């Protein structure tokens, strides 16, 4: 039986995730406590009923968690010559009936965790056939079944966990591996690419990212986010007093306006507005609310640059204020992405009628 939530996060943001889990669990009526160590790259939340808590806190509603797992066992002091036997015993003692649809052997995305990459890779190759022979792992990947995770926190310390593919990230550690494109004006393009991949599902991407949609990029220079929108076939108004990459302007789909992104407003409703301006997060949230209050766009992706302290508190204040100031019900999804740093990325759109979530 699972005894805790186990969540991967960006190294250094463990206190923020711990605070978020603690507050959200209490609001959902679940008692428990978080265990976190700054720089570790993960947080554990010990709960009386971890399964029920996991249902109450779907991954899509968590901001600072890259991945959400249910901890099955915490195995310490493992013998380096035989780590498989304790894992098999743990599966048996926890009444894990299997089969699992896939096996992921992972390690923290942290300075201390990255040296474990080689061990995780080789151990996965050794463990996989043993699990299949014992009936704990399906013969081929099956996304309809729970996923088994083996998390190496050290050479002698392993956490055994599971995840529901319908309520977890489809990438190990919750990190989509994106490569910088040589034609992109800046590496910031990766942030918007990851946001569209992470905050929208496949069906939404096909419906909401279409040719000839009209978009605005506030604070666009040198054009990383504009470049992503153009690659999706959109026509973009790039708003920034700074220079844009000339090659991007030569394509004929970008109109560069030298203006202040906090002051400019469109003449008619746009499909998309994106914003990656470096400014106080509450000021950005307030301006984004104006766009929805005035019905200037249908969908938006924007970043909120967080302060050095009380980052979960600031996140909650900004997101709550954003919806309140929009004066309309919004669907809001926020996440600290892999390509984010001291910031979070938000996707927003008006709620459909009858949608309670």
From TrEMBL:
It is an enzyme of class 2 (transferase). Its main location: cytoplasm. It catalyses: cytidine(2498) in 23S rRNA + S-adenosyl-L-methionine = 2'-O-methylcytidine(2498) in 23S rRNA + S-adenosyl-L-homocysteine + H(+). The active site is at residue 305. Residues 82-163 form the Ribosomal RNA large subunit methyltransferase M THUMP-like domain. Pfam families: FtsJ, RlmM_FDX, RLMM_N. It is found in: Cytoplasm. Belongs to the class I-like SAM-binding methyltransferase superfamily. RNA methyltransferase RlmE family. RlmM subfamily. This is Ribosomal RNA large subunit methyltransferase M. The lineage of its organism: Bacteria, Pseudomonadati, Pseudomonadota, Gammaproteobacteria, Lysobacterales.
């Amino acid at each position: 039986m699972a005894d805790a939530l186990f969540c991967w996060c960006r190294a250094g943001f463990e206190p923020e995730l711990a605070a978020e889990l603690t507050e959200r669990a209490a609001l959902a009526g679940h008692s428990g406590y978080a265990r976190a160590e700054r720089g570790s790259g993960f947080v554990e939340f010990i709960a009386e009923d971890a399964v029920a808590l996991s249902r109450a806190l779907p991954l899509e509603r968590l901001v600072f968690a890259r991945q959400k797992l249910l901890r099955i066992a915490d195995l310490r002091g493992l013998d380096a010559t035989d780590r498989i036997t304790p894992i098999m015993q743990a599966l048996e003692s926890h009444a894990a009936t299997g089969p699992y649809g896939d096996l992921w052997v992972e390690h923290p995305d942290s300075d201390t965790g990255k040296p474990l990459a080689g061990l995780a890779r080789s151990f996965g190759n050794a463990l996989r056939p043993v699990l299949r022979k014992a009936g704990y792992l399906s013969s081929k990947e099956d996304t309809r079944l729970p996923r088994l995770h083996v998390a190496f926190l050290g050479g002698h310390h392993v956490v055994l966990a599971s995840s529901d593919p319908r309520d977890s990230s489809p990438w190990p550690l919750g990190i989509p591996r994106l490569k910088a494109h040589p034609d992109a004006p800046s590496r910031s393009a990766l942030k918007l690419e990851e946001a569209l991949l992470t905050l929208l599902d496949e069906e939404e991407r096909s419906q909401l990212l279409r040719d000839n949609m009209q978009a605005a990029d506030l604070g666009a220079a040198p054009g990383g986010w504009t470049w992503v929108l153009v690659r999706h076939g959109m026509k973009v108004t790039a708003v920034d007093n700074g220079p844009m990459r000339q090659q991007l302007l030569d394509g004929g789909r970008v109109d560069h306006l030298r203006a202040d992104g906090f002051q400019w407003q469109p003449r008619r409703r746009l499909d998309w507005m994106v914003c990656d301006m470096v400014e106080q997060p509450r000021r950005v949230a307030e301006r984004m609310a104006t766009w929805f209050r005035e019905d200037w766009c249908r969908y938006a992706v924007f970043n909120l640059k967080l302060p050095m302290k009380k980052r979960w508190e600031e996140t909650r204040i900004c997101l709550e204020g954003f919806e309140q100031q929009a004066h309309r019900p919004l669907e809001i999804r926020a996440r600290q992405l892999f390509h984010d740093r001291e910031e979070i990325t938000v996707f927003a759109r008006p709620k459909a009628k009858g949608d309670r979530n």
